[in-house]
Specification:
single chain; 2 domains; 1 helix; globular
Length: about 325
């Protein structure tokens, strides 16, 4: 724990709770990668699978999370034996631990799907538009056998995964892969995570088709300009967001849990009951809390579901500014 006091005309105690430190990762021959903020998926992040022209399966697949299609209607969700809910707003299926949505269902589903599709396109544009990559044309597109640290990667070719790949970093680290061609993963290969890396912070933006081979395993959020296909027995811990169609064949899709909210909490005494700090605002890009300075002594902590460390606490006008990492 770190306890910092600052004396002005008022006495203000800042109580910083250190809940973990991320381990450093060494990548020989390259400077430290720039910190990339995560891609904001908006309401598209509510879906395990979201596609414009259809989602099909060869049973039995297993999807944990919601499925959505738009502007194509529910007739393009095939192989699931959908059962329309009594509300008319969604369907269910034995292969889906969640709900299936289509624009021919009852309100507010059509409007919600239009928003989600727009958010999916915005997220794709964001990922594709990130500049100053940390790695360019790594492995000439062949990343099989590599260990990849967090950062922004860019290829003007297809990306091939011919053998196992490891993404090594902490739970708050971000990977963004910009791929001008296809993603092709070989049969039986796996993408592994190490060091606490989280699938929800890994973004694969591909202009071409994405195909995951038989019994392969993938990690992260796939944002494809065209189609995504999973061969027999393939699995992914992540999301499938396609501008055309998604096809499954006895595949497993598990949407990763959303990040726990990051909240500034306060109490009048260090051993007191901490509640949400009044008037707080959070900038997740700069990792900065701003909160109105209390007229009485307050102790502050950051509550989060992942390891964070308070870096600095300063005063700016009538506000307190806390920066964390």
């Amino acid at each position: 724990m770190k306890n910092t006091s600052l004396n002005t005309k008022k006495t203000v105690n800042f109580w910083g709770l250190t809940i973990g430190l991320a381990g450093a990762v060494l990548f020989v021959g390259h400077d430290a990668a720039a910190i990339q903020p995560a891609v904001n998926l908006g309401t598209a992040g509510n879906f395990a699978i979201l596609a414009k022209s259809g989602v099909s399966t060869v049973p039995a697949s297993a999807i944990t999370g919601d499925v959505g299609v738009s502007p194509i209607d529910s007739t393009a969700i095939t192989g699931f034996s959908l059962i329309l809910d009594g509300s008319g707003q969604f369907s269910t299926a034995t292969q889906i631990t969640g709900k299936a949505y289509a624009p021919d269902y009852a309100v507010p589903t059509p409007v919600n799907l239009t928003t989600a599709i727009g958010d999916m396109q915005t997220a794709y544009t964001d990922a594709a538009g990130r500049s100053i990559p940390d790695f360019t044309e790594l492995g000439a597109g062949q990343i099989g056998g590599l260990t990849l640290i967090p950062g922004l990667y860019k290829w003007g070719t297809d990306v091939l995964i011919s053998s196992d790949v490891t993404l090594s970093g902490g739970p708050n680290d971000v990977w963004i892969f910009q791929i001008a061609g296809k993603i092709i993963q070989a049969n039986g290969t796996k993408v592994f995570l190490s060091g606490g890396a989280m699938a929800r912070n890994i973004f694969w933006q591909a202009f071409g088709d994405v195909s995951l081979g038989t019994t392969s395993h993938f990690e992260g959020i796939i944002m494809a300009q065209t189609s995504i296909s999973l061969a027999t027995g393939a699995s992914i811990n992540g999301k499938l967001l396609a501008q055309t169609a998604v096809t499954l064949d006895a595949s497993t899709v598990t949407s990763p849990a959303a990040a726990a909210p990051i909240t500034l909490v306060s109490a009048a005494v260090a051993t007191g009951t901490f509640v949400d700090a009044i008037g707080q605002s959070l900038n997740v890009t700069t990792k900065t809390f701003t909160v109105t300075l209390s007229g009485t002594q307050q102790f502050y902590r950051i509550r989060a579901g992942t390891a964070l460390t308070i870096k600095s606490i300063t005063l700016s006008g009538g506000n307190m500014v806390i920066i964390y990492n």
